[in-house]
């Protein structure tokens, strides 16, 4: 089991940021309203994720670390229409195969909490402990038992930046959850969880962007959008400032990017990569999800119509605004 788990783990855990993403998604799925992500040395030596969600029932704990064990299995098509982010049941088994994992968790119904330690897929201990409701995962020494993979990690600074990015996208996807991100004992991000998206933009992107947002709230026969377009003056070299969320999930889509950039281009008479923060609601049937453990490829039906409608929306919004 150990070897198979290690191989499977490679699919899910590429680097520390994958651990953060999977564990935070689990916290979100657990109904948490506050999530703290703490890392040391870019997550290579330590990742600690604490949530105030449902907790894991004592009797379910060892099972949760088995491969393909999920309490939320749904079909892949459901992925974008249901609230739960996890569905493969691979994260905990993969992470525990390649790191030292400590779990402290308590549900509302259990009288005491549990402290469970598993390292390289081997259960080390399972004891009772006093704990608040919710879950804490501590993940240490990523790839301690696969030195070849450990060598492929970048510097702690770079790995830490990847994690900061992931936490920002997760915070933006869930303005209703309070996120705290601490790196090497310094708080880097703390969102209120009160759904004020402009505040979030301010915290993550700073005043210049936050003070030049164009509101978008549009409903078409194909989709609903709300969010913001950035003022079209700041030049950027890439799509890093384009944020698209579909049904609560951060995604990248060349169709969405292209149509929006073309809308800007039509207005500006030159190409630029804008700041965008757009939350889309699509009917599940309009999207084809090709699921791979680490990335999500989206395909839309009605490509041409989506392109045209977005393009028009952007051009209208920019034209109606006094700049
Ligand atoms: P998946 O998320 O695909 O179901 P995971 O391996 O990520 O699979 O998690 C396995 C199971 O462990 C989940 O289905 C869930 O029941 C439980 N779990 C993991 N993390 C948490 C958490 N933070 N709070 C509550 N339950 C959790
Ligand atoms: Mg999961």
Instruction: Write the CATH homologous superfamily of the largest domain.
Output: Histidine kinase-like ATPase, C-terminal domain
Structural class: alpha+beta
Low-confidence stretches: none
Instruction: Please state the overall shape, judged from the principal axes of the Cα atoms.
Output: elongated
- Ligands (ions, cofactors included): adenosine-5'-diphosphate, magnesium ion
β-sheet strand percentage: 25-35%
CATH top level assignment of the largest domain: Alpha Beta
Distance between the termini: 61 Å
Helix content, binned percent: 25-40%
Note the run of SSEs as H and E: HHEEHHEEEEHHEEHHEEEEHEEEH
Q: Can you list the strand order of the major beta sheet?
A: 5-4-3-6-2-1-7-8
């Amino acid at each position: 089991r150990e070897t198979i788990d290690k191989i499977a783990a490679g699919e899910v855990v590429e680097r520390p940021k994958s651990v953060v993403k999977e564990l935070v998604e689990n916290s979100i799925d657990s109904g948490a309203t506050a999530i703290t992500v703490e890392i040391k040395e870019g997550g290579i030596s330590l990742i600690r994720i604490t949530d105030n969600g449902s907790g894991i029932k004592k009797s379910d704990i060892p099972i949760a670390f088995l491969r393909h064990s999920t309490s939320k299995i749904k079909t892949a098509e459901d992925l974008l229409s249901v609230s739960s982010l996890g569905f493969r049941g691979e994260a905990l088994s993969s992470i525990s195969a390649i790191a030292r994992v400590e779990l402290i968790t308590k549900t509302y119904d259990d009288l005491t909490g549990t402290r469970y330690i598993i390292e390289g897929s081997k259960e080390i201990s399972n004891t009772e402990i006093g704990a608040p409701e919710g879950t804490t995962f501590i993940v240490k020494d990523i790839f301690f038992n696969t030195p070849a993979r450990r060598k492929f990690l970048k510097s702690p600074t770079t790995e830490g930046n990847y994690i900061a990015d992931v936490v920002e996208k997760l915070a933006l996807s869930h303005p209703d959850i309070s996120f705290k991100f601490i790196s090497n004992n310094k708080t880097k991000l703390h969102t209120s969880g009160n759904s004020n998206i402009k505040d979030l933009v301010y915290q993550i992107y700073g005043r210049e962007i936050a003070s030049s947002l164009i509101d978008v709230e549009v409903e078409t026969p194909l989709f609903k959008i709300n969010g913001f377009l950035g003022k079209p003056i700041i030049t950027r070299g890439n799509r890093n400032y384009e944020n698209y969320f579909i049904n609560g999930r951060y995604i990248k889509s060349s169709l969405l990017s292209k149509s929006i950039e073309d809308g800007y281009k039509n207005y500006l008479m030159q190409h630029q990569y804008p700041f965008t923060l757009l939350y889309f609601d699509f009917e599940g049937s309009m999207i084809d999800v090709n699921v791979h453990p680490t990335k999500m490829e989206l395909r839309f039906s009605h490509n041409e119509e989506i392109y045209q409608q977005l393009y028009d929306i952007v051009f209208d919004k920019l034209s109606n605004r006094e700049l």
